[in-house]
Sequence to fold (446 residues):
Amino acid sequence: MIVRTKESRTKYGKIADATVGRLSRYYRTLKHLETQGVSTVSSEELARRNNVTSAQVRKDFSFFGAFGRRGLGYNVSDLKQNIARILGLDQEWHLALVGVGNIGRALLNFRQFQEQNFYFTLILDSDPAKIGTRIGNLEVKNLDHLADEIRRAHVDMAVLSVPAEAAQKVADQLVEAGIKAILNFAPITLLVPPDVTVRNENMVIEIEHLSFALAEGSRKIER
Amino acid sequence: MIVRTKESRTKYGKIADATVGRLSRYYRTLKHLETQGVSTVSSEELARRNNVTSAQVRKDFSFFGAFGRRGLGYNVSDLKQNIARILGLDQEWHLALVGVGNIGRALLNFRQFQEQNFYFTLILDSDPAKIGTRIGNLEVKNLDHLADEIRRAHVDMAVLSVPAEAAQKVADQLVEAGIKAILNFAPITLLVPPDVTVRNENMVIEIEHLSFALAEGSRKIER
DNA sequence: AATTGTGAACCTCTTCACAGCT
DNA sequence: AGCTGTGAAGAGGTTCACAATT
Fold:
């Protein structure tokens, strides 16, 4: 019943989450370089732009194949396409937004998702005042009909932005409905079966990292 | 010029970022337990609720002191207070929001920040149509006057939600203005001096983790 | 009897360093 | 000569296992 997400077991073997995250970053760099008309890039250059070592860059790629040419570097377009394939960005993904609050509404308008082929095709909420209203070209559906609606909309992933109290119960329903990937904005640790991937976007934790860093040594006495 | 954020060097020694993140999670659990009227908790129970091992919980605490009683467990209120102190949650923090877009606006209304003593006291943007308008009880200030405004508002941390193209330049200005902590929503790797802490909230990376997980094995051919 | 606190073992991730291509 | 790809070494984080304490 328990998942520790430090790695993913895949057809490539065990891949560290950190590696996957860096691939996303390299991908963004490569897109940028491509628009700049740059055709070739070295691991050294990718490293510099992403604040890692060049050995790290090469090692990250090595789990998936050999994409470069010794003595020359990497072809920007080829490498970009390879990473897109690895990350699954060469296909469309359909998202369900579960919970239409502040954050949820912002995500619906978040262009970067669409730019990477992630599309919201379903919106769910439990608030009768919201159910039936339209946001963009989607109608807010009743959370009580979660399983049916998810099947109908061919949803691949769920973006969970409900209050903390409701999050685990909704996660259970998502799992029950067959969802295998959840982006969780609720500030709790979701417990899901091992075949379900959860990624957390926990802004309170991140800001508390910052206060931890600042609170060190120079503790402020008063404001 | 380069920062790898895997740990923080502090008065407690080197503390892994993962430990700090877990402290935030334990803290949330303790708050919950306190409202439930629970007065004592074991490392086993904290572990279960946060999906880690009990040894991990005890080790995490051990970097900061000995907060429990052998044979009995931890006093919920005491432990909560200790973690609050460690994380710097026993004081108010003033935030600047830099960039008022979708996400920025949602963050201004994000209650959990205020509940943890994080308050926005300054809003900056470069768009003339936004400068001078009011959001809540704050006036949007001109990004060009960043340093002055930050000094005036006694800002501790910046929340950066400007477009990727502008992010590094704004980060440089924040650093120049003396800011030591940045919560970055822009989808790029910010390069900052070692004494500046950056935490990234990169939703595109997180969702690409999910597509990586789903793309594995069962690659979908068509939709 | 129960549960913490922690050194040591273990495991995972990063970096080194160099052989192998271009 | 330049740069990749990778086995081995190194660093760091997690888990074990048990002495210490209530």
